């Protein structure tokens, strides 16, 4: 399966929740069936200065669609990202003298929404929030009948153009920046990286831009 993750633009004069509601109605009108809720959440871990003179930061992402796994992405060198069993969270809790999580809820990001299914196509549409503050709408479009990205680029553009407000004429920025993955077997970690790029933009205070 192949997934593209992009922000969904909220029309002027509408709230993000209204935009999500309109998108949900559109998908149902197109023949999609509502399936299970989903959640993708990200927590940041920062090394304590007394333990590491050079600060180390990594992010842990959990995806309800992959309940047995967790994903660790370093802040600097994302090429050494790790996919691990969710039991890794227990190990991380024992590193509290070395790493701390972001205080309170200020560092937590999450996307919560609904899954919609139609034949080989799946759309997950949800609200992105940062520390409890709504930041926008995120869409994950999944093609379940293909696992080699380069063979599905045009089909993915056509698929997403059926529900995005404007034609999907480019690929998500993470995928366009990693041409080496085009001919390789697509993995769930590529989807997680697309979420991470959006989360990093929000943490940096940048506006969400579709694509």
The first-level CATH class of the largest domain is given as Alpha Beta
Strand content: 25-35%
Distance between the termini: 20 Å
Order of helices and strands: EHEEEEHEEEEHHH
Helix content: 10-25%
How many domains make up the 3D coordinates?
2
Integer average pLDDT: 86
Number of helices in the DSSP assignment: 5
Summing up helix and strand content along with how strands pair, one would put the structural category as alpha+beta
- Strand element count: 9
Sheet with most strands: 9 strands, antiparallel
Describe this structure in words.
- The protein is of the alpha+beta class.
- It has two domains: 134 residues, TATA-Binding Protein (2-Layer Sandwich), CATH 3.30.310; 61 residues.
- 23% of the residues lie in helices and 35% in strands.
- It contains five helices and nine strands; from the N terminus they run βαββββαββββααα.
- Strands 1, 2, 3, 4, 5, 6, 7, 8 and 9 form a nine-stranded antiparallel β-sheet that branches.
- The longest helix is centred in the last third of the chain and has 16 residues.
- It is globular and about 55 Å long.
- The model has no long low-confidence stretch (mean pLDDT 86).
